[in-house]
């Protein structure tokens, strides 16, 4: 016999495979909570993006033929619910007005034989947009149903927080060392120059191979071994000595192989070798701007001069062993200082710079340094890829985001200026230029946590200044959290 309950009432139900029907045309979800009233993780949230609990005990199912319009079914096999779960909450929400405006909001439990066991009709909903409508809970070796009707004016976010769903901005990171690296097994960003910048060991003699690539770029599993060939620099620093051996192929780090790097159909406008095969994202205007990495090394102030490059943006990895001042300027065709890329008094400075090669294919940078240095010029496609995994650095950097609009969370531990801006490459078509950069979203001094909103598509995130350790990662919530945090139109 059907028992109609009012708010706060409860009744025993069979410990069996039950079906729960929710009326009113609202969204429905289930939270499986422990005796502490909290979920153990996102897996304990059953919602349209994850309609089946890992145990198989609770699932959303399609409406049956003949159901009233707007009915949503939740199957709950009480015999299969894990022992650690003490309650199954039936949750409802609306994106259209409030629950007060939802006619026919109700819940009904149907037994294995198809007969209705218990029901509850909500008659006192107010301005809430989310509600714990009812719950199935353990009692005296069996299960009971309670008509709850607890609403949340702050929507699913408030409901979720009350039941242990983590909606915080960013998890607390492990402590950073003073040099910006993690005390854990993750390798630091800069490896070129690490032998002297990190440990104080002597520099390699001129002409010796560098200790490693500046950015750790792992080989794809299916990539053939990268050939190693000497690269004759068109013009190197006077202190560089004989040309170092460099890899002729540099794979991209953390880059999904969405599109192969395009190669010019003919010889192209420049003499540079086309030897890279870097996976690049869609809307990538620099697919033809590929070349073998150029390596320079020297000591003291100098001019970094590399010819034969494709016009357009490039990466310049630089590491300087120094106790003094480090500065880098771009130089015009008239040999005048133009853009100040580095101005730092940090000891043993290192970072990755963003520079633009002019149409003549010759990159010239003026370096002020008080010690030995290493430099490597790389194609823009070698930029580190942003993801939900934490990236670490201790200086300027260029990062690449591909995907939907999101936020990049930064945790800066330095005492100086921290400046970050971005370049939206979607729709940009000129391979010889960067698009107009967006106004710096982050321009602060001292330690802080900041978030940089980035649009969807392909975006360069440029850390212009940062003379201290920092971390960055995408703030992409899990599917469950994204659903719970959705905003009404």
Characterise this structure:
The protein is mainly beta and 489 residues long. The chain has a domain of 160 residues: sav2460 like domains (Lipoxygenase-1), CATH 2.60.60. Helices cover 4% and strands 38% of the residues. The chain has 3 helices and 31 strands. The strands form 7 sheets. It has a 6-stranded mixed sheet, with no helix packed on it. A hairpin with a 5-residue loop joins strand 9 and strand 10. The chain starts with a strand and ends in a 5-residue tail after the last helix. About 22% of the residues have low confidence.
**CATH class of one domain, please?**
Mainly Beta
Which percent range fits the helix content? Answer: under 10%
Main beta sheet: 6 strands, mixed
Structural class: mainly beta
Q: Unreliable stretches, pLDDT < 50, 5 or more residues? A: 169-276
List keywords for this structure.
489 residues; Lipoxygenase-1; 6-stranded mixed β-sheet; mainly beta; elongated
What's the helix and strand layout?
Layout: E1 3-5, E2 10-13, E3 17-23, E4 27-33, E5 45-46, E6 58-61, E7 72-77, E8 87-93, E9 106-110, E10 116-121, E11 130-139, E12 142-152, H1 155-162, H2 194-197, E13 228-230, E14 245-247, E15 294-299, E16 302-306, E17 312-320, E18 326-331, E19 337-344, E20 350-357, E21 363-368, E22 372-379, E23 384-385, E24 391-393, E25 397-403, E26 406-412, E27 417-424, E28 442-445, E29 448-454, E30 457-466, E31 470-474, H3 479-484
Summarize the model shown.
This protein has helices at 155-162, 194-197, 479-484; strands at residues 3-5, 10-13, 17-23, 27-33, 45-46, 58-61, 72-77, 87-93, 106-110, 116-121, 130-139, 142-152, 228-230, 245-247, 294-299, 302-306, 312-320, 326-331, 337-344, 350-357, 363-368, 372-379, 384-385, 391-393, 397-403, 406-412, 417-424, 442-445, 448-454, 457-466, 470-474. The protein has 489 residues and is mainly β. The chain has a six-stranded mixed β-sheet, with no helix packed on it. It has a six-stranded antiparallel β-sheet with strand order 2-12-11-8-4-5.
